[in-house]
Amino acid sequence: MAQTTGAMTGATATLELNVNNGGFTDIAGSASSIDVVEMTRLNGSAFTLDGDYAVLTFGRQPPTAVTVNILYTEVAGEAFLKAVSALKANQLAQIRWKPAGSGGASFTTVSGGKISTVSLPGNDASSGDPLMVSFVVQAPGIETSIS
After folding, report:
1. Taking the CB of residue 55, how many other CB atoms lie within 10 A of it?
2. 49-74: per-residue pLDDT in tens?
3. For residue 19, with 0-12 CB atoms within 10 Å meaning exposed, 13-18 middle and 19 or more buried, which class applies?
């Protein structure tokens, strides 16, 4: 197989947040990254008295946590205040991201999830870096536009 020419960076990714089924809102302007998310399927195994290998079974996909790393801002409509508001109001939340940008494959948390965690900003007077925080969407799973 020839070496791929389809490698990409996340520099053109899009990221959207949907709170309380109000439609997806672009939060890429105040978001920095999404932690790697693993899609998994519950599985188990058991050995029998006969044979050298285990019997494998596979079940459903478990809930998924998606961590979004964002810049701390106090600007209305940006990611941090949206996340805090959704957490405090116990509202439904979904994340949709497209690593290749608006025309690429999309990954979306399944409806029924909520923001379970919002980190608050720390402070370091010796640093010139922007203040970073994160929030976690706990969802029933991930839907994808690729197969």
Report:
1. 10
2. 999 999 999 999 999 999 999 999 99
3. buried
